[in-house]
C-alpha cells in the first residue's frame, strides 16, 4: 500500500510501510548507509505527518519483513494479544502518542498494554516523539525482574559490574570486581566479556565468579557473555551458570549472523532454568542489542535501524529476560555518528523496550572513532535514569581495557544516584550496609574506611 | 593527593591490572588528576584512528623476512569515507581486484592458507605487530607442510575483505590480521579472524576470532597457539565459525609474565607472588 502526505505545496509519496517508517526516522548515519533515510528534512517531517495519521491497526495487516521469510515476523504476528491491544485499537499513531502522554496511560494501563503492542508500533510512535516524550512515557512503565535480587523497582538504578580483562587474568579480573563492589557496583549482574569463546576458559571464569558470589554472600548473579551454545556446553559440563547471555537482533537473518535462532535461545533458557539457581525469581536470560546490527549483517530487509532494533525486543520478551541491554554507542559512527545520535538512540531503545515490557538497561558508551566524548555520555547518563532506566554499566574509570571502548564508570552511577535520589537494588544495598562497605540508611554512600570483609583478600596480595 | 580527595586503601591492586581502579573520589566523583589522565588517553586514541598504514616500511620488512607481499586497497578511497562506509571497506577496489586476479591467473592460486594484513581501525597495531604475529605462526604451518599464498597488504580494509581475497587466491582457509578499534589503554591491538572456505558474502558466524593480540595483551605465542589449534581443526572438520569451538587449553603455555595467576578474592593461604 502507498502512503502520501501533501504539505507546503508538495505531495510526498511513500511506496510501503517500511519506507514510511524509515523516512520518518530521525536522522542517523546507519539509515543513510542503508540508503533508506529521508532525502531531506522536509521529506522527514512530511513522513512523520503521514505516519501520525496512520491507524495503529495498519501494523496488524502490513508487515515490514515478510511473514514467510522471517521467524521474528512470525513471532511478532503470532504472539500479538488482541485483547491487550483493545484500549488503543482505534487510535492513529499520532493519537497513540497523545494517549501515552495522558493520565489514562498510568503504570497499570501500560503494563496491561504491552502484549498488545508490536515492535513496529512502538518504533512508529517513538519517531514522532521528542526526547522529553521518550523520558516521560518510559518513566511510567514498570518492569520488575528477579533472580537473586530485584531489578527495576521505582526509584532504583542498578549496575552491571563489568570487570573485563584483555587476557581473562583471574587476578586482574578480581581486582576490578573488588574495586566495583567497594564502589557499590554489581547489583544487576557481575558480567565478564571473555577474551575468547574457548570453552575451558569460559568454564573457569564461570566457576570463579560463582565462588566469589558465594564466599562473600553477594545477593547478585554472574554472567560470562559468551555465545549461547557455549553456555549450554558449560551447563552440560556441570559448570554453574546463572544467566545465559546472547546478542540478538530484529530479523531472522541477522540472528543467523550471530549463529542463533529462536530454537537455540529456547534451549539455552531451558538449560539455565533446569539448574534452579534463582532465589527470588527465575529470569535467567541476559540479552544485548544495538541499532545497526541487522544492517551490519546485511540482514535489514530495507527496514530502518531503529525499527529493526525494536523488533529485537520481540525476540527478547519471548524469553522473559532478567536484563536487556542496548549497547548504544558500541557499533560505531557508521550507524550512530555522534553524541546527538547516540543520545537519542539510547532513549528510543529504552522507551521501546519498556513499552514492550522489557527490563531495559543501557550501555551508555562510545568508541574512539565516533564523534562523541565524556560530555555526551554525561547527558545520556543523566537522561536515562530520569526515564527510569533499569540498569547501566559500571567499569573502572570508564575505560574497558578488553573491548576498547568507553562506558559508564562506578563513579558515574554514584553521581546520577545522588543527583536524582536513586538507590540500588534493595537486597544488594542491604548487603553493602551490613558488610560495612556503604553507610547511611536514607542516603547510602561509600564509607571512607575499608570493610573488614575484604581485609583478608587484600592482605593476600600485600 | 590533598585531603580533598578520598584515597582508596586498595591502591595496591593496581599492579594486577591496567584497568583504572582505585582512582579515589572527590565527593563521589572522579578526582581531577585521573580525570585529566583519561582525557589525554582519549585524545591519543582519537589520533591513532587517523594514523596511516606504513605501507613501504611494512613491505620492506615482510620481504626481508621472506614473506612475499601483494599490496591492495579496498574500495574506500580515504579515511573519512572508510569510517562512514563499512561496505566499501569490505571489498577490493577495482584496480586491486584486477591486480590480484592477474596474479592468481599467473599461477598464484590454490593454497592451504592465505594471510591478509589490513589497517582496520588502527594502522598503529598493524605497523607494530603484524610481522611478529606472522613469524609466530609460520613455523607451525611450515612444519605441517601448508602452502601459503603471498601476504595481502590492504589499506582501508575491514574484516570481510579477507574472504574476497582468500577466494581469489583459491585458499582453503584465510586469516586476516587487522587493527582493532583503539582503546584508551590499548591503541595497538591486533585482531585475527579465520574463515574456512572463504567467499564473498560470509558473515561473522562463519569466522573464528582471536582478539587483543599485542605484547601487553594476548602474546604472539599464545595467539599462535590458539590459531594453530583452530587452523588444524578447521582443516580437519572442514568448517569454521560458531560450530568450531576453541577448546585449546592455554594452561600448557608458559605464563605470560607479569600477572598473578590466582584470584586473591577466593584463594586461601599463600601469596601468589613469589
Automatic annotation (TrEMBL), chain A:
Enzyme class of the recorded protein, top EC level: lyase
Catalytic activity field: ethanolamine = acetaldehyde + NH4(+)
Family: Belongs to the EutB family.
Binding site for adenosylcob(III)alamin: 194, 246, 296, 402
InterPro entries linked: Aldolase_TIM, EutB, EutB_dom_2_sf, EutB_N_sf
Lineage: Bacteria, Pseudomonadati, Pseudomonadota, Alphaproteobacteria, Hyphomicrobiales
This protein's pathway: Amine and polyamine degradation; ethanolamine degradation
Organism field: Methylocella silvestris
Entry keyword annotation includes Oxidoreductase: no
Protein name (Swiss-Prot/TrEMBL): Ethanolamine ammonia-lyase large subunit
UniProtKB/TrEMBL annotation, chain B:
Gene Ontology MF: a single term: ethanolamine ammonia-lyase activity
Top-rank EC class of the record's enzyme: lyase
InterPro entries named in the record: EutC (IPR009246), EutC_C (IPR042251), EutC_N (IPR042255)
Record keyword Amino-acid biosynthesis present: no
Pathway: Amine and polyamine degradation; ethanolamine degradation
Domain of life: Bacteria
Subcellular location(s) of the protein: Bacterial microcompartment
The UniProt record lists the keyword tRNA processing: no
Cofactor annotation comment: Binds between the large and small subunits.
Family named by the database record: Belongs to the EutC family.
Cross-referenced PANTHER family: ETHANOLAMINE AMMONIA-LYASE LIGHT CHAIN, ETHANOLAMINE AMMONIA-LYASE SMALL SUBUNIT
Subunit-structure text: The basic unit is a heterodimer which dimerizes to form tetramers. The heterotetramers trimerize; 6 large subunits form a core ring with 6 small subunits projecting outwards.
The protein's name in its UniProt record: Ethanolamine ammonia-lyase small subunit
Organism encoding this protein: Methylocella silvestris
Amino acid at each position: 500500500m502507498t502512503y502520501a502526505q501533501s504539505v507546503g505545496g508538495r505531495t510526498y509519496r511513500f511506496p510501503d510501510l517500511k519506507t514510511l517508517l524509515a523516512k520518518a526516522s530521525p536522522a542517523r548515519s546507519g539509515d543513510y548507509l542503508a540508503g533508506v533515510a529521508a532525502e531531506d528534512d522536509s521529506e522527514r517531517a512530511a513522513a512523520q505527518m503521514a505516519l501520525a495519521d496512520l491507524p495503529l491497526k495498519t501494523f496488524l495487516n502490513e508487515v515490514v519483513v515478510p511473514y514467510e521469510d522471517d521467524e521474528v515476523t512470525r513471532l511478532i504476528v503470532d504472539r500479538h494479544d488482541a485483547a491487550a491491544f483493545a484500549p488503543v485499537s482505534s487510535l492513529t499513531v499520532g493519537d497513540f502518542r497523545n494517549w501515552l502522554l495522558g493520565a489514562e496511560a498510568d503504570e497499570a494501563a501500560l503494563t496491561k498494554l504491552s502484549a498488545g503492542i508490536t515492535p513496529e508500533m512502538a518504533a512508529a510512535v517513538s519517531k514522532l516523539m521528542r526526547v522529553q516524550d521518550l523520558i516521560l512515557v518510559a518513566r511510567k512503565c514498570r518492569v520488575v525482574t528477579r533472580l537473586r535480587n530485584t531489578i527495576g523497582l521505582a526509584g532504583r538504578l542498578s549496575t552491571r559490574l563489568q570487570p573485563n580483562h584483555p587476557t581473562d587474568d583471574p587476578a586482574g579480573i578480581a581486582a576490578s570486581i573488588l574495586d566495583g563492589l567497594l564502589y557499590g557496583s554489581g547489583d544487576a549482574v557481575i558480567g565478564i566479556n571473555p577474551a575468547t569463546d574457548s570453552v575451558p576458559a569460559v568454564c573457569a571464569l564461570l566457576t570463579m565468579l560463582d565462588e566469589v558470589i558465594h564466599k562473600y554472600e553477594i545477593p547478585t548473579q554472574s554472567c560470562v557473555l559468551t555465545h549461547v551454545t557455549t553456555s549450554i556446553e558449560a551447563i552440560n559440563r556441570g559448570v554453574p551458570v546463572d544467566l545465559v547471555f546472547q546478542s540478538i537482533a530484529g530479523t531472522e537473518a541477522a540472528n543467523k549472523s550471530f549463529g542463533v535462532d529462536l530454537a537455540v535461545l529456547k534451549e539455552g533458557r531451558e538449560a539455565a532454568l533446569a539448574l534452579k539457581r534463582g532465589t527470588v525469581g527465575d529470569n535467567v536470560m541476559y540479552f544485548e542489542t544495538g541499532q545497526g546490527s541487522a544492517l551490519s549483517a546485511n540482514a535489514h530487509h530495507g527496514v530502518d535501524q531503529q525499527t529493526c532494533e525494536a523488533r529485537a525486543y520481540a525476540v527478547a520478551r519471548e524469553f522473559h529476560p532478567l536484563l536487556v541491554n542496548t549497547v548504544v554507542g558500541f557499533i560505531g559512527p557508521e550507524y550512530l555518528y555522534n553524541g546527538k545520535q547516540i543520545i537519542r538512540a539510547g532513549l528510543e531503545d529504552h522507551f521501546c523496550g519498556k513499552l514492550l515490557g522489557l527490563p531495559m538497561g543501557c550501555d551508555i558508551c562510545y568508541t574512539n572513532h565516533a564523534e562523541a566524548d565524556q560530555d555526551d555520555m554525561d547527558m545520556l547518563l543523566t537522561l536515562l535514569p530520569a526515564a527510569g532506566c533499569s540498569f547501566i554499566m559500571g567499569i573502572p574509570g570508564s575505560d574497558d581495557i578488553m573491548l576498547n571502548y568507553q562506558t559508564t564508570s562506578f563513579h558515574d552511577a554514584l553521581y546520577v544516584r545522588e543527583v536524582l535520589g536513586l538507590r540500588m537494588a534493595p537486597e544488594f544495598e542491604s548487603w553493602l550496609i551490613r558488610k560495612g562497605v556503604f553507610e547511611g540508611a536514607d542516603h547510602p554512600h561509600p564509607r571512607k574506611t575499608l570493610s573488614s570483609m575484604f581485609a583478608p583478600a587484600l592482605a593476600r596480595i600485600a | 593527593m590533598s585531603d580533598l580527595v578520598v584515597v582508596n586503601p586498595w591502591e595496591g591492586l593496581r599492579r594486577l591490572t591496567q584497568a583504572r581502579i582505585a582512582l579515589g573520589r572527590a565527593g563521589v566523583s572522579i578526582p581531577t588528576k585521573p580525570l585529566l589522565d583519561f582525557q589525554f588517553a582519549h585524545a591519543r586514541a582519537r589520533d591513532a584512528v587517523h594514523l596511516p598504514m606504513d605501507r613501504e616500511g611494512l613491505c620492506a620488512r615482510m620481504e626481508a623476512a621472506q614473506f612475499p607481499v601483494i599490496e591492495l586497497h579496498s574500495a574506500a578511497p580515504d579515511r573519512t569515507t572508510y569510517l562512514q562506509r563499512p561496505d566499501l571497506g569490505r571489498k577490493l577496489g577495482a584496480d586491486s581486484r584486477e591486480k590480484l586476479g592477474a596474479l592468481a591467473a599467473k599461477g598464484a592460486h590454490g593454497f592451504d592458507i592465505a594471510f591478509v594484513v589490513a589497517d582496520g581501525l588502527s594502522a598503529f597495531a598493524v605497523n607494530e605487530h603484524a610481522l611478529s604475529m606472522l613469524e609466530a605462526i609460520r613455523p607451525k604451518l611450515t612444519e605441517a607442510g601448508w602452502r601459503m599464498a603471498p601476504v595481502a597488504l590492504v589499506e582501508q580494509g575491514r574484516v570481510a575483505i579477507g574472504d574476497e581475497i582468500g577466494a581469489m587466491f583459491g585458499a582453503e582457509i584465510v586469516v586476516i590480521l587487522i587493527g582493532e578499534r583503539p582503546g584508551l589503554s590499548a591503541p595497538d591491538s591486533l585482531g585475527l579472524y579465520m574463515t574456512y572456505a572463504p567467499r564473498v558474502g560470509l558473515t561473522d558466524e562463519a569466522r573464528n576470532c582471536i582478539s587483543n593480540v599485542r605484547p601487553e595483551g594476548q602474546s604472539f605465542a599464545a595467539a599462535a597457539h590458539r590459531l594453530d589449534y583452530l587452523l588444524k581443526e578447521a582443516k580437519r572438520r572442514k568448517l569454521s565459525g560458531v560450530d568450531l569451538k576453541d577448546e585449546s587449553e592455554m594452561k600448557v603455555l608458559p605464563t605470560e609474565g607479569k600477572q598473578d595467576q590466582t584470584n586473591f578474592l577466593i584463594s586461601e593461604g599463600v601469596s601468589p607472588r613469589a
